[in-house]
Amino acid sequence: MKRLLALLLALAVLTGGAYLLSKARGFQLFGTVVARVETGQPLVALTFDDGPVPGQTEQLLGVLAGRGVRATFFVTGREARLHEAELRALIAAGHEIGNHSFSHERMVLVRPAWVEDELARTDAAIRAAGYEGPIPFRPPFGKRLVVLPWVLDRQGRVTVMWDVEPDSDPNAGAERIARDAIATAEAGSIILLHAMDDSRGATRDALPQIIDGLHARGFRLVTVSDLLAAGDIAPAARAP
Question: Which of 19, 74, 180, 230 has the most CB atoms within 10 Å of its CB?
Answer without folding.
Answer: 74
